[in-house]
TrEMBL record:
This is Protein-export membrane protein SecG. The gene is secG. Signal peptide: none annotated. It is a multi-pass membrane protein. It comes from the Bacteria. It is found in: Cell membrane. Belongs to the SecG family.
Amino acid sequence: MQAFAGIILGVQILAALGMIGLILVQHGKGADMGAAFGGGSSGSLFGASGSANFLSRATAAMATLFFVTTLALAYLGNSRPASVGSVLESAPAAASVPAVPAEPAKGADLIPANK
């Protein structure tokens, strides 16, 4: 089970790095907005900017893969064998230690009492 979780973690790391790379390579929508006010821009200012290209589809696929691996790791991390109990149940019983009364601090008789 640990090897399977390690493989899923490796896939998640690769998906995260791939997603970061794909996002950084993509052309931002904000760059076209400045050209829309006077330049010959083919995209619209507030509407849809056409069909999705390869980079946006690949980013969506990487995000889906990242989400699925995150759910799988959460499931594997939360599932435990039935034989494992609580840490508190397996701890030995604490030995009873008799309480020793504390002695008054030295010089405590010099402190004036409120009367």
